[in-house]
Amino acid sequence: MEIVLARDPEDAAERVARVILARLERKPDLVLGLATGSTPVGVYRRLREAHARGEASFARVRTFNLDEYLDVPADHPQSYRTFMRTHLFEGIDIRPENIHFPPADGADLVRRCAEYERAIVDAGGIDVQLLGIGRNGHIGFNEPTSSLASRTRVKTLTERTLEDNARFYGPGERPPVLAVTMGIGTILSAREVLLQAMGQKKAQAVRNMVEGPVSSFFPASALQLHERVTAYVDPEAGSLLTMTAYYRRTRSLQEELRRAGRL
Ligand code: GLP
């Protein structure tokens, strides 16, 4: 895993956006795996701005979102479909038919989750997967004890996630207790993973993900098994890492090799 110690959250967002735009330039029909939450908001803003400046077109891009709450209507303010519309899709030229979410309502979920997996394969696989990380190490909604081989399926949310979400729902509304999420196996099948973590409250999670053992009890640690993961962390989120000098040195030496065209 490559660790990028960003100056601050804005610097991290800038770096991630730059990587996505570079990949898009090389492959206009890029397949993006997208995440929600507060973490990727700055990246999405930069992608919208690049599009507005005429520097990037998403007309041929296909997207697959990581997860969605089960039975939360698409137009609900807390649905991930609303989030993506507001933060990204409305501001770029993506075609509606190229936007994909896991099935999160109705019947036949097992079959439709398998179809979601097939749609990813049919699109040629995910080129770049964006990720945040939950404090308990979840990626997407792969909560602790998720199988490291899991694929898109229904997941039960943990108590902590339920507590975090309760405040977003009004009286009389039932906050979701289930979600549909790409599995850890799905995420590990992406060609490249860009993970961002910001703020003190993610520090222990970053430590466990990077320097802890691989364990389904800490799902993000499974990323150690992927050959192309870059984790962008701000100083607070990186504050519990023990090998920061090495990560810095690695990054600058690797960049030197890249600049010399040797990597
Ligand atoms: C949710 C999402 C995750 C996200 C996590 C962290 O649970 N399902 O994909 O990474 O929250 O959220 P935030 O970025 O707001 O800290």
Task: Give an overview in words.
With 263 residues, the protein is of the alpha/beta class. The chain is 34% helix and 15% strand. The chain contains eight helices and ten strands. It has helices at 9-26, 41-52, 80-87, 109-122, 159-166, 184-188, 203-211, 244-259; strands at residues 2-5, 31-34, 62-65, 67-69, 99-100, 128-131, 153-156, 178-181, 192-197, 229-233. A seven-stranded parallel β-sheet has the order 1-10-9-6-2-3-5, with helices on both faces. Strand 9 (192-197), helix 7 (203-211) and strand 10 form a beta-alpha-beta unit. The longest helix has 18 residues, at 9-26. The two termini are 16 Å apart. The mean pLDDT is 96. Residues 35-39, 66-67, 132-134, 140-141 line the site of 2-amino-2-deoxy-6-O-phosphono-alpha-D-glucopyranose (GLP).
In short:
The protein has about 260 residues and is α/β, with parallel strands linked by helices. Helices cover about 35% and strands about 15% of the residues. The two termini are about 15 Å apart.
What overall geometry do the principal axes of the alpha carbons give? globular
Sequence of strands across the biggest β-sheet: 1-10-9-6-2-3-5
Strand proportion, as a percent range, falls in 15-25%
**Bound compounds, please?**
2-amino-2-deoxy-6-O-phosphono-alpha-D-glucopyranose
Show unreliable segments: none
Fraction of residues in helix = 25-40%
Task: Assign the structural class, choosing from mainly alpha, mainly beta, alpha/beta, alpha+beta, or little secondary structure.
Answer: alpha/beta
List the helices and strands in order: EHEHEEHEHEEHEHEHEH
Biggest beta sheet attributes: 7 strands, parallel
Amino- and carboxy-terminal Cα gap: 16 Å
Give the helix tally. Answer: 8
The overall strand count is 10
Rg result: 18 Å
Mean pLDDT score, rounded? 96
